[in-house]
Amino acid sequence: MPHTAIADTPQLRVELRGVGKSFGGTPVLRDIDLVLEPGSVHALVGENGAGKSTLSKIISGLYTADRGQLVVDGEREHFTSPREALDRGIATIAQELALVPELTVAENVFLGREPRTAGWIDRKKLKREFLEVAARSGFDLDPDQVVGGMRTADQQKVEILRALARGASLIIMDEPTAALARHDAELLHDVVRQLAASGRTVLLISHFLGEVLALADTVTILRDGRHIRTAPAADETEATLIEGMLGRTLSSIFPDKPVVADDAPEVLRVSDLVAPGVNGVSLSVKAGEIVGLAGLVGAGRSEIAHAIYGSVPRASGIVAIDGANCPADIPRTLKKGIFLISESRKEQGLVLGRPIRDNVTLSNMGQIASGGWVRTGDERRASRGLLDRVTVAGDDRRDVSALSGGNQQKVLFGRALQKVRKLLIADEPTRGVDVGSRRAIYDLIVQQAEQGIGVLVISSDVEEVLGLAHRVLVVRGGRIVAELEGDAMTEENIITAAFADPITTGGAA
Ligand SMILES: Nc1ncnc2c1ncn2[C@@H]1O[C@H](COP(=O)(O)OP(=O)(O)OP(=O)(O)O)[C@@H](O)[C@H]1O
Ligand SMILES: [Mg+2]
């Protein structure tokens, strides 16, 4: 009767002793000692590639350690699968959610463990047990709703309920808010606090240091696979965390904004653009100017980007580059020097299973020669040069899928740098990227602007938009509802405009 196993005393003490792990002879974790105390939120921070996900995968049974011990409630454990870890009370809320979209909330929560009567799923009991678990969690979810159409934040709740229904005491969350809008992230924060208050342990991996300081009781810093320190969150600040993560200080996360000449020409002018999710948008970007597109997830920011780039058809309206009409046709927009870095690195075609080198030079090769990839000494040097600029170290013949998430994002950036000449559109350029690398990406964006390239940056991180952009356009319902510049560029103004009912400002061209 595992489906009823919501332990009343769900406490679990998980400990790592001298844990080490290597991939292909390269040590990724070295001699890690760590205790996760029950009833607490324990955050894990570190640069991209520091070993955070690897550490969490050792605890959750996806990887086994090469050295050292995993100790659960005083007993040594050798998990050989996530299933075994789950049976011991350890669950992971993966970033790519593992739900069945066609099934309902309750069905997903009890998937594979449905209460049965004489072999048949007992629907009444399923619902009753669901309500019981839901009540304990404090979540307000409709058990009969189909999961597929739900918001990411709600789907995460379903995953958490599933973990609770299976009696999980340690819940690992690897960058749970990376893809969430601010409001949903706050909802998830409440959930994390509730879990800890109920005696469970949450292991939280996050690049949002503000979130870490607000939520965690304890913070562990990893750098280059080494345990730097574990300390009460109350003893840390963003600056001390950054120093621990990078081994150096970072005076400012944002570079100085480049100066835009008064007579800088317009590189982009969009007039009355209508396209899927875009309801009449007019805007312009000058040479050397960085314009931010702010708004909630789903407001239509990415849709605007795609309509400009030409990856979706336009219903009406005009997109002009340097004053000349540019039709919705990617080869032609590329030729005009527009490049889009889209928000999803997987969709945007990192070719997994291919070397980093091929991935970073991909767009430069024009085409893949039949039967093989073009590779010359020039390309080898080009690859290395680009990787240096985006600060991705190491052998570029390694498979790109072996890179940590943030480093994959930087490879995409490196690819874009060769193509863009007029306008760079960057959609969530630092999602999942650590603070040090974030600065590297900001520097790259600013360098582009300094060379006279116009930049359109989409970000859900209000601080990022404010720190980078000369001007901010707030998008809501596929329209631009506010244009903010100078002193009007504040967090409060952005959020008010993003949530407010559409204002009839007539756009912001
Ligand atoms: N399956 C794998 N095969 C080879 N190398 C791997 C594998 N998984 C991870 N690595 C390497 O191990 C190191 C740590 O990766 P890990 O994913 O744990 O980093 P992370 O701290 O989670 O980074 P991020 O913040 O980017 O998610 C990286 O150098 C990565 O390239
Ligand atoms: Mg990771």
From TrEMBL:
InterPro entries assigned: AAA+_ATPase, ABC_carbohydrate_import_ATPase, ABC_transporter-like_ATP-bd, ABC_transporter-like_CS, P-loop_NTPase
Matches recorded under SUPFAM superfamilies: P-loop containing nucleoside triphosphate hydrolases
Pfam families: ABC_tran (PF00005)
Annotated coiled-coil segments of the chain: none
Keyword terms, alphabetized: ATP-binding, Cell membrane, Membrane, Nucleotide-binding, Repeat, Sugar transport, Translocase, Transport
GO molecular function, one term: ATP binding
Signal found in the keyword field: no
Keyword hit for Transferase: no
ABC transporter domain span: 14-249, 259-502
Domain of life: Bacteria
Protein's name in the database: Monosaccharide ABC transporter ATP-binding protein (CUT2 family)
Organism from which the protein derives: Microcella putealis
